[in-house]
Amino acid sequence: MADTQIFIFDTTLRDGEQVPGCKLNSDQKIEIARQLEKLGVDVIEAGFPVSSPGDFQSVSAICQAVTEPVVCGLS
User: Which H helix or E strand runs over 70?
Assistant: First the structure.
């Protein structure tokens, strides 16, 4: 059990935006991603980039803004 490694996979930026009335702009998404990085999150699911050009741009910007977590998108 001592060799067990736990990875944190956060879906706030994709799944969290599915809440009625929740609409984050790109700057807000980047700030959330930076805070998740500070918390030590291993993987950030940043959005659904194929859904719109705006979401694609946001996911791309998040990839540039953080260095430690793996950034992925739902496809």
Answer: strand 70-73
4 part of a folded domain: no
Sequence letter at residue 64: Q
- Judge whether residue 1 has pLDDT over 80: no
Categorize the per-residue pLDDT at 2 as very low, low, confident or very high, splitting at 50, 70 and 90: confident
What's the number of domains the chain is made of? 1
Closest CA to 48 of 56, 57, 40, 36: 56
Domain with 56, as residue range(s), is: 9-73
Residue 23 belongs to some domain of the structure: yes
pLDDT digits (tens, 9 = 90+) for 12-29: 999 988 889 988 999 999
